[in-house]
UniProtKB/TrEMBL annotation:
Residues 397-398, 434-436, 506-507, 532-533, 555-556 are annotated as: PRFAR binding. This is Imidazole glycerol phosphate synthase hisHF. Pfam families: GATase, His_biosynth. GO terms for molecular function: glutaminase activity; imidazoleglycerol-phosphate synthase activity; lyase activity. In the C-terminal section; belongs to the HisA/HisF family. Keywords: Amino-acid biosynthesis, Chloroplast, Glutamine amidotransferase, Histidine biosynthesis, Hydrolase, Lyase, Multifunctional enzyme, Plastid. PANTHER family: IMIDAZOLE GLYCEROL PHOSPHATE SYNTHASE HISHF (PTHR21235:SF2), IMIDAZOLE GLYCEROL PHOSPHATE SYNTHASE SUBUNIT HISF/H IGP SYNTHASE SUBUNIT HISF/H (PTHR21235). Pathway: Amino-acid biosynthesis; L-histidine biosynthesis; L-histidine from 5-phospho-alpha-D-ribose 1-diphosphate: step 5/9. L-glutamine binds at residue 130. Substrate binds at residues 365, 501. Residues 55-251 form the Glutamine amidotransferase domain.
């Protein structure tokens, strides 16, 4: 497995280079010298600034979010450029993302693995995040076995989905704190954000390291603490105020860790409420948030203008403050344009990630592309630019449909589709597939070769069954594949989550298509996000009560202030649904 593209300021494309705005920063250079293990010593130089933290960014995924959170808390950042920088650090943050094997390849080839072992052995202040925790263990089964840093006894294993457990573990879950650790002060009773498919289990050999556990099928290690060595499986930079408090506890030696008591004590994985922003240019060239009526975003007036419901960054910030568990940006003209030519959309991600400390998803036009000058960009490069710009997850639409059709026809995984490439490098938890189906009524399941459901409301001619035909290009073109078949195929190809829309329900405010959501969420073992049709708080409790959806997404009712996010959360609490409040 190859590590992801390394450059942050520019994207390598063979002989061609696409320059990205300077606000994105520069990826630190790495030493190519291989270091030996054992007694080899590395020189150390003093690090003086008490308000500066050293960040180990080895070039995978969205580390911008960690940078933004650290800066938000008033600290500067010094990037690791060599193993010596690790040993010189006063405080080291290691936000590991991507695949275990790819990360260890980079750490070993640059000499940073030995430097990390030595730094930790000296009991210097260290905070590992997500993969930064997993790499501390002996080994991982992910594409392995692969040896880790060997600091903590244990093997990192995949969650077992064979008994109905949804994998990846995505969302806001509760911590059971088992040790009095400064890092977790103020976190008791609050949800924190997890997104991972692999986990480390408690054992007699590692129990002295464990500071908290989390339950998801089984109890797994959610944080460790030993002296000055801390690491967490969750993402504090994406865990809202609770996560920022945890980061502050590490960065500020004198931090009190004080946080308001949870209004409702977290006890298990919460259902998520997601705010979606459909983004496109209006007729004046301004980037705006809009909303469609069955995917038509123009006003039904003589002007036929694109509906303008606000500015993307302002609305995203507002929804974060209001309690949205995630924010999703959908570039709804990305299917026809070259997405990396849309620098304003990249800048939206830059700015939003500086203000929004919950997960950000972006979709639209993620595919292989050759621009007007004949320069070829792979889908992996396109996704990488989105990640570096602040996205935590990317959403693939039309390209996933074509990949699924090819897979179902041949039964062969080529490894060349955008879905396969991106999930292989960044992990399937970073890849959402957006499905845009339209209901097609039939008299009998035998009428079509696709999975049908007995519908709750009969069709226009009294039909009792329907199948859901998938579309591409923003709902404009229909394809010979059903939503059920597409969902099963993309799960096999590496999708980590499904965003399930319904063209018939879009903008109608009559509720989610329960028949569709139940059919798909029962068919796959990855999380399903219900989308399209929400018009009242009761629609959210209904979809969670009647289906296995992990999250529910809405757009227009939030943009038009018809239903506040807080009202949705309070209704779900009253309905007995676990949510982050």
């Amino acid at each position: 497995m190859q590590p992801p593209p390394q450059s942050q300021g520019a994207m390598a494309t063979g002989a061609a280079t696409l320059t990205v705005p300077c606000s994105m920063g520069r990826r630190p250079k790495r030493s190519s010298q291989r270091r030996g293990s054992g007694s080899a010593s590395l020189s150390v130089r003093a690090s003086s600034d008490a308000n500066t933290v050293t960040l180990l960014d080895y070039g995978a995924g969205n580390v911008r979010s960690v940078r933004n959170a650290i800066r938000h808390l008033g600290f500067g950042i010094r990037d690791v450029r060599s193993p010596e920088d690790i040993l010189a650090a006063d405080r080291l943050v290691f936000p590991g993302v991507g695949a275990f094997g790819s990360a260890m390849d980079v750490l070993n080839s640059t000499g940073m693995a030995d430097a990390l072992r030595e730094y930790i052995q000296r009991d210097r202040p260290f905070l590992g995040i997500c993969l930064g925790l997993q790499l501390l263990f002996d080994s991982s089964e992910e594409n392995g076995p692969v040896s880790g840093l060997g600091v903590i006894p244990g093997v990192v294993r995949r969650f077992d989905s064979s008994k109905g457990l949804i994998v990846p573990h995505i969302g806001w879950n509760a911590l059971e704190i088992t040790k009095d650790a400064q890092l977790l002060q103020g976190a008791d009773g609050h949800h924190v954000y997890f997104v991972h498919s692999y986990h480390a289990l408690p054992s007699d050999a590692n129990r002295d390291w464990i500071s908290s556990i989390c339950n998801y099928g089984d109890s797994f290690i959610s944080s460790i603490s030993m002296g000055n060595i801390q690491a967490v499986q969750f993402h504090p930079e994406k865990s809202g105020d609770t996560g920022l408090s945890i980061l502050k506890n590490f960065l500020s030696a004198n931090s009190s860790g004080v946080k308001a008591p949870a209004r409702r004590k977290a006890s298990k994985l919460a259902k998520r409420v997601i705010a979606c922003l459909d983004v496109r240019s209006n007729d004046n060239g301004d980037l705006v948030v809009t909303k469609g009526d069955q995917y038509d975003v123009r006003d039904h007036t003589s002007s036929k203008e694109v509906r303008n419901l606000g500015k993307p960054v302002d609305l995203a910030s507002e929804y974060y403050i209001d309690g949205a568990d995630e924010v999703s940006f959908l570039n709804i003209t990305g299917f026809r344009d070259f997405p990396l030519g849309d620098l304003p959309m990249l800048e939206v991600l830059h700015c939003a990630s500086e203000k929004v400390f919950v997960p950000l998803t972006v979709g639209g036009g993620i595919r292989d592309f050759t621009d007007a000058n004949g320069r070829y960009y792979s889908s992996l490069e396109v996704a990488s630019e989105y990640f570096r710009s602040g996205a935590d997850k990317i959403s693939i639409g039309s390209d996933a449909v074509y990949a699924a059709e090819a897979f179902l026809q041949t039964g062969v995984k080529t490894g060349k589709s955008s879905l396969e490439q991106i999930s292989r490098v960044y992990g399937n938890q970073a890849v959402v597939v957006s499905i845009d189906p339209r209901r097609v009524y039939v008299n009998s399941p035998e009428d079509v070769p696709f999975k049908t459901v007995k519908v709750s409301s009969k069709g226009p001619s009294g039909e009792e069954y329907a199948w859901y035909q998938c579309t591409v290009s923003g709902g404009r073109d229909s394809r010979p594949i059903g939503a059920y078949e597409l969902a099963k195929a993309v799960e096999e190809l590496g999708a980590g989550e499904i965003l399930l829309n319904c063209i018939d329900c879009d903008g109608q405010g009559c509720g989610f298509d329960i028949d569709l959501v139940k059919m798909v969420s029962d068919a796959v073992t990855i999380p399903v996000i219900a989308s399209s049709g929400a018009g009242a708080v009761e629609h959210f409790s209904e979809v969670f009560a009647k289906t296995n959806a992990s999250a529910a997404l809405a757009a227009g009712i939030f943009h038009r202030k018809e239903v506040p996010i807080l009202a949705v959360k309070e209704h779900l609490v009253d309905a007995g649904v676990e949510v982050r409040v």
